[in-house]
Structures are given as C-alpha cells and as structure tokens.
From TrEMBL:
This is histidine kinase. Residues 258-310 form the PAC domain. Residues 59-103, 176-254 form the PAS domain. It comes from Pedobacter hartonius. Its EC number is 2.7.13.3.
Amino acid sequence: MLGITALLIIESIIELSAIASADTGIRKLSLYKDLSFLVVAAMIIYFSVGFYKKIHLTNELNYQQLFNGSPLPMYVMTKGTLKFLAVNEAMVKLYGFTESEFLRMNAFDIRPREERNRIKVFLDEFGELTNESGRWLHQKKNGDCFYVQITFHYVPLIGEGAYLVMITDIDKSINDEKRINDLLNLYETVNKATNDVIWDYNILTDELTWMPGYFEIFGYSGESTQNSFWAMQKIHPDDRKYVQEAFKSLLADKRKEWSAEYRYICADGSVKYIRDRGYVIFNVAGEPARMIGAMQDIDKQKRFEQQLLSQNEQLKEIAWINSHQVRRPLSNILGLINLIRDSSVQEDDVRQLIALLAVSSKELDDAVILINRQTMEGEG
C-alpha cells in the first residue's frame, strides 16, 4: 500500500512538471517516470522479501522451540529410508541414545527385529492417509522393550518427503491391562473354589460389571442390579456412608489398593458380612480410570467371631462366679475341716461344725450347678 501511494505521488509530480515543460522534454520526462517506477518497485520488492524472510525465520524458530521443548518424545525421519533427521531432548531421555547417535540411525533401529517389517508395510499402505498408527513395540539403547502410541504427520516439503513423529509411552498402561486380565482369569478360576465375587468398575462411565458368582451368592437377577455404583444401595445403611467416604478418599488420594468390611443386603432381605478388596488402574494422564475388586463372603466367619466374643463374656462371668461364689464356700469348708481335726474340740462343737460344713457344701453345690447351667447356655 505504501509503495502504490509513493508511485501515485511521483506520477502526479511528473505530470505537473510535464505541463510546465515544452513538448521537446516529453521524452525525457517519460523516461524519468519509467525509471522512478522501476526504482520504487525494486524497493517494494526488496522490503517485501526481507519482511517475508523475517516472518519465516521467526516461525522457524518458534517451531524449533516447540520441537525441542516438547515433553513428548518427537523426531523427524525421511519417507524413503526412515533415517532420523532430527530428535528432541525428550526422545534422547526416553531411549538412551545421544542426538549424534540418533542422526546415524533410522526408525528400524529403535524397534525389535520382529517389528521392523511391520512399520515399513504400514507406512507404504497408510503413510499419507492417517495420522494414527496404534500401538508399537519399541526398544531402548539398553535393550529394554516397551509399548508406545504413535502420532505422525507427513511433511512433503523436506526433500523426498518426511514424517514428524510424536511418541507416547504407554508401557505401564499396557502392562497394567495385561496384569489385570491375568488376575481376572486367575480370579475366575479361584472363584470356582471359593465364595469370592469379582467385579469390574469403570470409574469414568460409572459402569459396574459383576463376574460369575454374584447372583448365586446374593440372589439378585441381572436386571435388579442396575444402579449407580456411588449410590451403594445394597450396602447396609449403617455402613453405607463409611464405605462411600472411604472410596472417595481412595480416588482423591490416588491410592492403588482398596479394602473395606461392611454388611451387604441380599435379595431376600438378609444381611451378609463382606470383605471387599480392589486394585485401581490409572490412565496415561495418571487419573483413576478403572478398578478391579473381589467381594468375599465372610458372614460365617464374622458371626463365629461374634459368637466367640459372646462366649468370652460368659467365660468372664463364670470366672467371676468361680472366684467369688465358689471360693467362699470352699474356703469355709476347708476351715471347718481343720477345726474338726483339732482334738481339743468338744463333741457338741463338732456337731455344730458339721452342720456348718453341710451349709457350706450346699452353697458350693449351688455355685457348681450355676456354672454348669451358664456353660450349657453359652454352648447353645
């Protein structure tokens, strides 16, 4: 816009000069006009090219900073040979190779041998059609293999073409899934010999799935179990709030293991004591996403414990009776026997002592009968 304005001003000055001049100077003025136009046009082109270079250099520096500073491992490789053209610091840190080592390598060198043909086939077929390539097995400098998720973009402006590749380390998530699947298979096997009930809870969608055994142990049909996990409607009302708060704390603190004991209401209205244990699975972002657990029916064990506690109280009461009601008449009897044995005691006194001995013996017998009765009630 500035250049066009300058040209118009020059043209106006020349035209005014032409009016004031003789006809013989028209050719010189026309030549002067053409030269001025070329000079201004050259200046416009010069400054435009400089401005474009400055913008291009700024954008290039910005992209370079984004590439090097990205927390995700990134690299650029050629389309044909898959040779590394550039790697960022996160790539060096994850794989263990130096930048100079990477620049002498290609994409095959960070994959175990059995995976190398797969990447070539994939790029030949889908390289310019998709940006997602799914899960891959990669290999570090020390030989350790791990799973990654790859996102890549085709860059046609570099030589024969290149790919900008971004890496997400998903090895922990994959191993967690494998471990959980192994545990589920193990739990299903164990479930056939125990009263454990396996459950699978999707924290993100609030979906709870029961494994075989739940309906047989607690008597519910599939239709009657559809409710929010957080409602915990089948947990005894006196235990429900405690379990809800404990579960919220588990997720808030991002702990891995869960354990609780509570009473569970069966379909027929009866109540069973449950020991509930679980393991939390976290997603790539480090947030709780899934939980696998096992409910164990400990009702018989719990009621047996309560029975033992009750019997213990009865034993304490029996011990008290033994220490007071038994020992008192027994002490009397022992004392009376010693008196009777005394040779200086008169016959009338002996008769009186025998009468007292009979009374103490009756008290002892009553105490023994009471102990037997309480013992029988405790066993019942």
